[in-house]
Amino acid sequence: MGSDIFxxxxxxxxxxxxxxMGYYPYYHRVESEQGPEIIVEGKKRIVVCSNNxxxxxxxxxxxxxxxxxxxxxxTSCTGSRLLNGTNDLHEKVERKFAKFVGKEDAVLFTTGxxxxxxxxxxxxxxxxVIITDKLDHASIVxxxxxxxxxxxxxxxxxxxxxxRQLIKHQGKGTLIVVDGIFSMEGDITNFPExxxxxxxxxxxxxxxxxxxxxxxxxxxxxxxxHFNMENEVDVLMATASKSMASIGGFIASKVEVIDYIxxxxxxxxxxxxxxxACVGAIDASLDLxxxxxxRRTKLMNTAKKMQEAFKSLxxxxxxxxxxxxxxxxxxxxxxxxxxxxLFDEGVFASPVVTPAVPEGQAIIRTSYMATHSDEHLNFIxxxxxxxxxxxxxxx
Length: 395
Ligand SMILES: Cc1ncc(COP(=O)(O)O)c(C=O)c1O
Fold this sequence. Notes:
Elements: H1 7-10, H2 14-21, E1 37-40, E2 43-47, H3 60-73, H4 88-101, E3 105-109, H5 112-123, E4 129-133, H6 138-146, E5 150-154, H7 159-168, E6 174-179, H8 191-200, E7 204-208, H9 223-226, E8 235-239, E9 249-253, H10 255-264, H11 266-269, H12 276-291, H13 293-313, E10 324-330, H14 332-345, E11 347-348, E12 350-352, E13 362-367, H15 374-390
Parallel strand pairs: 2-11, 4-5, 4-6, 6-7, 7-8
Antiparallel strand pairs: 1-2, 3-9, 8-9, 10-13, 12-13
Helix pairs in contact: 3-12, 4-12, 5-6, 7-8, 14-15
The chain binds pyridoxal-5'-phosphate (PLP).
The site of pyridoxal-5'-phosphate has 14 residues, from helix 5.
């Protein structure tokens, strides 16, 4: 007789054990909007785990645009973009996004995850190779797994390892895929070197700007603009779930590439399109990103202040160059315990443990918003100092 496939579920006790110990950090119930102060399970806490970088998720203009779009188009498009699920608002934001990032065309998927899944899986065919940074986001890995091509990885931001892979696969059609700002590490991809190598070995480059769009570059256009090399980015991906205060994902590139993706990416063809309320929010956020550059300036000043302050307290901030600041704390259990103490002290952070990080290198990931005030930041630092000392991470 075969075994019961539910056996593994009945034996899955890790969550219950952590709940019993009081250290379970996931799926906590938020009972308010996503500002710097939120109510989590009945208590006000200062958030350092949000991706609402520019603070637009509760901007009155964004909320108004979302309501208006729902009133005009209803709550759902009830079908795929390919068939009945494309309306004029989807097309409007695609044009607006493409213009903003300086690409010929763009396509809007229902999530950022879907964008990577669909675009990567259809762009790489059997005889071709996709080379990713080892710390690229999980949605990139998923896209690679779904493609029929060969997958290769290079050590994080290690250009000689990337070149080794390019030499190994020389002669095959190749796509290099990197995060602009790495989601857990907060460092920026070495785009100038990647671009040199891509030219040398005739590879194309795909940059996931999930955490960099709206955040870096003089006008918030991301990694290419940050390095003054926008034309060298062949395919630009961005999620709408972070700086754009909504949900959804864009792929921007040449007209022919976007046309190919629109007709071959399974994750746009076989899923319903983004509800108009979400598209309305993207529309207004794209305007605000361009009209209110002071938000980006404030965000980056906050990032610098916090990087310096954590370092002077004695924390290891790794190579953070962005509003994502990971603090190394050691074992998984220490990360969970510190998370709990921070939570009780009124700070809502994220523990990142194995397998997302190597054994013994668990982190507390912190991230900042343009709307964190100095008071919030000082409160966060005071609590991290207390908790870091309690667990012997700092002196
Ligand atoms: C680098 C990166 N790419 C893609 C995604 C997926 O985007 P979304 O959450 O909008 O689906 C994320 C989400 O966290 C991300 O961090």
